[in-house]
């Protein structure tokens, strides 16, 4: 093999390795969420079940989350102050989001008369039609902000969310502060475990 051929072969191997690493990162980010919020002091305490919580006096405020919804309306999460808000980051391209969606819808129906409001943030879907089709297929009835570039996720304080961890779920207390967090898909029981302590607060 000539020197030029060996050089080309090394370049191909390097590119393939880099591509495989990038693909693995993308899959793991979507499939497992992860446990890192990207650094920063957010006062979250990680539980053995993967759910992080913050004591009432240690909670940070949720950022401004407003804009156009997947169905073309307008929504401002601040309008739900006084309720417990369950905020779920999802994408139609994400298989764990598809697995998790029925659990979110079921719990949202169970708690709809208990001052709990579910809100989705659809992220990195370049076509709103894909997001709408996902909601229809999954029977989702709660609203979702449409955030194709992920700019809403970047409004959170450093360490609160990992923009690559989708799905992620936050529970926001009645005062608009972030009480609990999961950076992975949730079962109904885990979702209730996140919400119930915050709902019980007065």
Please characterize this protein's 3D structure.
The chain has 202 residues and is an alpha+beta fold. It is 35% helix and 19% strand. The protein has helices at 3-32, 95-110, 128-138, 188-200; strands spanning 45-46, 52-53, 66-68, 74-76, 84-90, 116-123, 144-147, 168-172, 178-182. A seven-stranded mixed sheet has the order 1-2-9-8-5-6-7, covered by helices on one side. Strand 6, helix 3 (128-138) and strand 7 form a beta-alpha-beta unit. The chain is globular and about 40 Å long. The N and C termini lie far apart (75 Å). The model is unreliable at 7-29 and 31-39 (pLDDT under 50).
Name its key features:
alpha+beta, two-stranded antiparallel ribbon, 202 residues
In short:
The protein is of the alpha+beta class and 202 residues long. It has four helices and nine strands; from the N terminus they run αβββββαβαβββα.
Topology:
Layout: H1 3-32, E1 45-46, E2 52-53, E3 66-68, E4 74-76, E5 84-90, H2 95-110, E6 116-123, H3 128-138, E7 144-147, E8 168-172, E9 178-182, H4 188-200
Parallel strand pairs: 5-6, 6-7
Antiparallel strand pairs: 1-2, 2-9, 3-4, 5-8, 8-9
Q: What is the mean predicted local confidence, pLDDT?
A: 85
What is the spatial order of strands in the main beta sheet? 1-2-9-8-5-6-7
Radius of gyration: 19 Å
- Give me the strand/helix succession: HEEEEEHEHEEEH
User: What is the end-to-end distance?
Assistant: 75 Å
Low-confidence stretches: 7-29, 31-39
User: How much beta, percentage-wise?
Assistant: 15-25%
Shape: globular
Biggest β-sheet, characterized?
Answer: 7 strands, mixed
């Amino acid at each position: 093999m000539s020197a030029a051929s060996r050089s080309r072969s090394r370049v191909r191997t390097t590119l393939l390795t880099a591509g495989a690493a990038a693909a693995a990162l993308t899959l793991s980010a979507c499939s497992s969420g992860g446990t890192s919020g990207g650094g920063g002091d957010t006062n979250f305490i990680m539980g053995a079940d993967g759910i992080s919580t913050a004591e009432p006096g240690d909670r940070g405020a949720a950022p401004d989350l407003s804009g156009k919804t997947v169905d073309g309306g307008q929504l401002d999460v601040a309008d739900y102050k006084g309720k417990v808000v369950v905020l779920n980051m999802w994408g139609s391209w994400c298989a764990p989001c598809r697995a998790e969606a029925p659990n979110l819808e079921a719990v949202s129906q169970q708690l709809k008369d208990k001052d709990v409001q579910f809100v989705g943030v659809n992220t990195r879907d370049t076509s709103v039609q894909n997001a709408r089709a996902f909601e229809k297929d999954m029977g989702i009835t709660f609203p979702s902000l449409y955030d194709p570039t992920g700019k809403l996720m970047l409004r959170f304080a450093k360490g609160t969310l990992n923009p690559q961890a989708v799905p992620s779920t936050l529970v926001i207390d009645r005062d608009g502060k972030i009480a609990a967090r999961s950076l992975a898909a949730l079962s109904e029981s885990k979702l209730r475990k996140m919400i119930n302590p915050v709902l019980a607060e007065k």
